[in-house]
Amino acid sequence: MLLITIGLFLLYLGSEALVRGSSSLALRFGISPLIIGLTIVAFGTSAPELVVSISAALKNSSGVAVGNVVGSNIFNVAAILGITALIRPPSVHLSLIRREIPILIVVTVLGFGLITFGHISRVTGILLFVGLCVYTIASIRSAKKETAINQDASSKPPELSTWLCSILIASGLGLLIWGSQMFVTGAVNTARSFGVSEATIGLTIVAAGTSLPELATSVVAAFKKESDIAIGNIVGSNIFNILCILGITACIQPIDVIGIGTLDLAFMLGLSLLLLPFAFTQRTISRYEGSVFLSIYGGYLYLLWP
């Protein structure tokens, strides 16, 4: 309990620093907070998933490595988006979300296919990582176009200098990673003592634990009315998990998928598809819809655990 308590405290401090630094950096450079959420915040908060998956692959624990990615993507949409909507229904820039959510769905379908195939080679891993680079460059370019159209960022002066924003972002990410590692270590050891399988540990405890930075950041962003950062963090993290984590992990050690069932992949893909209507029909995810996402995650856990 001590490790969990300290870890949660570090997660809170880290998310506070990361959200404040990221929102101020976006304001200073006139970049949409959604882009900051999709790139810097999303990639940074996904660092624990990357570390855990690489470590698991090197130890030939492919069930944990792949289960971590699949489980994190399920947790990000069902649990984090659900909780964020309950706190403050997120409203985002429609033009950007119309592009980002379809990209997420395409990437998720790709991940679904690769994991179903059962083997991810080094060549495939390299191609996935190249895809991430292309996505990031395209996001930065779209940010410049968005800045030219949306002048909201220039309506108030930035609060912090660039170097202070950078310090807050770096220290926030460090605290988030440290806190999540403390939580995951205790939780995994406890689960293994009860004889829980590696795939189940990866899909649930490790996935939720390594997603704590995303949860903490999105919750704090919601309370601070930074909904663009909150939802950008969720969408960007899911894209990063498949393209970068699976990609880099496969580059280091080709992955043989073990223990990941059709149910898990169906939930990962289905939850991504549920976001599609929000991209084209409305700008806000209501509290009721947030509760539906949370209920879906509860149902998934019920089906997963015997």
Describe this structure in words.
With 306 residues, the protein is mostly helical. It has a single domain, classed as A middle domain of Talin 1 (Up-down Bundle), CATH 1.20.1420.30. Helix content is 82%, strand content 1%. The protein has 13 helices and two strands, in the order αααααβαααααβααα. It has a two-stranded antiparallel sheet.
Describe the SSE topology.
Elements: H1 2-29, H2 33-45, H3 47-58, H4 62-87, H5 94-117, E1 119-120, H6 122-149, H7 162-193, H8 198-210, H9 212-223, H10 227-252, E2 255-256, H11 262-274, H12 276-280, H13 287-304
Antiparallel strand pairs: 1-2
Helix pairs in contact: 1-2, 1-7, 1-9, 2-10, 3-4, 3-10, 4-8, 4-9, 4-10, 4-11, 4-13, 5-10, 5-11, 6-10, 7-8, 9-10
Count of runs of 4 or more consecutive helical residues: 13
Which percent range fits the helix content? over 70%
Through-space gap between termini: 25 Å
**The CATH C-level class name:** Mainly Alpha
Quickly give the CATH architecture: Up-down Bundle
- Sheet/helix structural class: mainly alpha
Tally of individual domains: 1
